[in-house]
Design brief:
Pfam families: Cutinase (PF01083). The chain contains 8 helices and 5 strands, in the order H-H-E-H-E-H-H-E-H-H-E-E-H. It has about 220 residues and is an alpha/beta fold. It is globular, with a radius of gyration of 16 Å.
């Protein structure tokens, strides 16, 4: 959490006009961070659904706990961070809050620069899954190569592929009867609220893809 607190200090690089400005790789801040701050082995950035409490919500919490149980015996350190964004339903119907996607992208981009040997996972539920897609497309090709995996739950963009190579590194949970996955935003059924049941499977998927030091840079 020390590192992510430092990462948050870069968030003003989202300009007042909403433009995401890449961090310069040779900047003093990035150089200082590489030299002085410890990096976790694995970073998970998760965006919660509409109206869920900050910052993880009922889907991410068991996901995080399951992943901790798997990684701890392997002495793999984990940073699991909820993306702070205005998770209002009206933005869900518009395809996701743009600030949320930019915030996740900046967090990922900064982690890539500061922690070149860490594995990174991007994840989200429902509205948060929309932001995960936004981030996948906002990242530059060489940045996408650093993403070890993508996990979404109740994804409104379930049938929409991610840019390469992320589509091949993607796990998306969509329950039978969850119309959200078919793009029907106005018929939200009980199936959309049961993704905590997939926490263990999601954690196993992530655990298989991380812990090798920058795994996402080299392999599918």
């Amino acid at each position: 959490m020390v590192l992510f607190s430092h990462i948050c200090s870069f968030l003003p690089l989202v300009s007042p006009t909403g433009v995401l400005e890449p961090l310069p790789t040779g900047s003093a801040l990035v150089t200082e961070s590489k030299n002085k701050l410890p990096c976790s082995d694995v970073y998970v950035f998760f965006a919660r659904g509409s109206l869920e409490p900050p910052l993880l919500g009922p889907i991410a919490t068991p996901f995080k706990q399951s992943l901790e149980r798997i990684l701890a015996p392997r002495s793999i350190s984990l940073s699991f961070t909820g993306i702070d964004y205005p998770n209002l339903p009206e933005y869900f119907f518009l395809g996701g809050h743009p600030l949320g996607g930019r915030t996740m992208t900046l967090a990922v981009r900064t982690t890539i620069l500061i922690c070149p040997m860490s594995d990174i996972i991007i994840s989200g539920y429902s509205h948060g899954a929309q932001l995960t897609h936004d981030t996948a497309f906002q990242l530059l090709p060489h940045e996408r190569n650093r993403i070890a995996g993508v996990v979404t739950f109740g994804d409104p963009l379930y049938r929409h592929p991610l840019p390469p190579p992320l589509q091949a590194r993607r796990l998306s949970f969509c329950h039978p009867g969850d119309n959200i996955c078919d793009g029907d935003f106005y018929d939200i059924r009980a199936a959309h609220f049961s993704y905590h049941l997939n926490a263990t499977d999601a954690a196993k998927f992530v655990a298989e893809r991380v812990g090798r030091g920058g795994f996402g840079r080299a392999k599918l």
